[in-house]
Amino acid sequence: MLVVAVGLIAGLGAAGLLKVLRFTQELFWRSEAEDFLSGVVAAPSWRRMLIPLLGGALVTLLSLVVGQPLRGHGTAGIIESIWVRSGRLPLHRALLRGLVSILAVAMGAPLGREGALLSTGAASGSALAQWLGLNAGQTRLLVACGASAGMASAYNVPIGAALFGLEVLLGSFAMELFGPIVVSCVVATLVSRVLIADHPSYVIPGYTLLHPRELLLALVLGVLLGGASALYVRGINVMSDLLDRVSSWLAPFLPLLAMGVVGVVAVWLPQLLGNGYDAVNAALLGRMSLTLLLVLPLAKLALTSLCAGAGVPGGLFTPSLFFGALLGGAFGMLSERLFPGSAPSGAYALLGMGAVLAGTTHASVSAVLLIFELTGDYPLVLPLMLSAVVSAAISRRLEPESLYTSVLNRRNVRMPATIPHWLRQEGARALLKPVSKRVSPSAPFQEVVALLLELPAGEDLYVTDEAGRYRGALVLDELKGHLPDHSLLQATIAEDIMDTQVKPITPEMSLSEVAARFAQTALERLPVVDSGRRLLGTISKMDVLRQGTF
């Protein structure tokens, strides 16, 4: 019942906020929500500069009134609430921030409307759980249900929003979590379909990419947009870090200054105002020039980073779709010129949306399904999956943190690992260190002692034959009391005093097996050998203990 209630509240809240968005756009731009760009283009230059400036003034004024900035895109705060704060979110602040975010986006802020809907849905779930005195686990789940329901109602994407909640917010596909989130998303979507609209957010032709050459191009696109996704995340973070360093007296006025810059740029590039729905739709339909397809994404990234860092509240999900769609459209247009007869650029714009979404969130599963539901174009699902997975892998290699976890890292909030235990656990090979010194079985006693005394504390000397095969270990402490008669030392060699009872480790052994082997000896290090008993290196007890999971 509570899950259904959260979905209902999130759906009604989303419908109300979207009504505010449309009313504000009609009031200031004299345009319908689905045709926002035409109203902006028809507006004189002074209005394009003035209205965003008024939006920045509104954010600044309210920040001064409440005594704290309204910055942030919300999703990172929701993740932090779930994992660190036992699901606690202040409802009044979320409602105020959501309303200001919607007004700012309607007045031209180059951010996404979804930030307001996610945060209000999540805060509603948190407030309901606290009012009923639920435990921390149930509160966390209701927060995730509310956030996912907010996204589902915002874009009419129940499946993708449910998986977004599981993959991004909760970091788990456990069946115990799947059911409640799906129910809340279904309820919220039903409400939005009754009160808002019942069709995909982007209505496009049925594109198909099945030729092997087109699948190869999708793979190349995934690689390129993986790098672009890392650039997007890095750009947002760098700008935020720079603006965090401004003087405290100037910080409240940053939204005003940032929106002023947005207004000036909009005189020449009106497509950058708002969440960019019309520009994305034009790219998906192949109705945008190559110049704009290349210029607008970089300009959008710059202005989005500026506004987000300055403290203008809003989402980064929709701007990432803008960024990916236009870069994908540019790639498709260039592909058409290089390979006549290729698929239309709009098809690659759709792939670009999914690739950048996967690359910035590091959540390829939910990215694929979100794009599929946003456009309803199932025939593109195979190349979409390919480009999304490749983009996420490349982006993760270049920028280990996602768009959301990077924000938390700047606050010194560390998220627990959500990768399964058996995947996190490294084997013996990962801890292998090379051997600094080794001796032959015929090495004289004086040489052995000199080498042992040169070794750092805790290291031992190993005896290997001409082929590098392990024969035994020489441990300084164990030599005490086991030396032959002093008169025979000149004739003693390494083979006479080596310990053949030290059992070596193989690279294929798991850490649990290595830990068990260390439990049988007092040595700080153990030798590692291959199947032919060739000495590969050593593993230290300290390195094994640092892993912490056996």
UniProtKB/TrEMBL annotation:
The family database entries (InterPro entries) matched by this protein are listed as: CBS_dom (IPR000644), CBS_dom_sf (IPR046342), Cl-channel_core (IPR014743), ClC (IPR001807), ClC-type_chloride_channel (IPR050368)
> Any idea where this protein resides?
Membrane
One protein family per Pfam: Voltage_CLC
Q: Which UniProt keywords apply?
A: CBS domain, Chloride, Chloride channel, Ion channel, Ion transport, Membrane, Transmembrane, Transmembrane helix, Transport
Bilayer-spanning residue ranges: 46-66, 94-111, 141-165, 177-196, 216-237, 249-269, 290-311, 317-335, 347-372, 378-395
PANTHER family noted in UniProt: CHLORIDE CHANNEL PROTEIN CLC-E
What is this protein's name? Chloride channel protein
| Species of origin | Myxococcus landrumensis
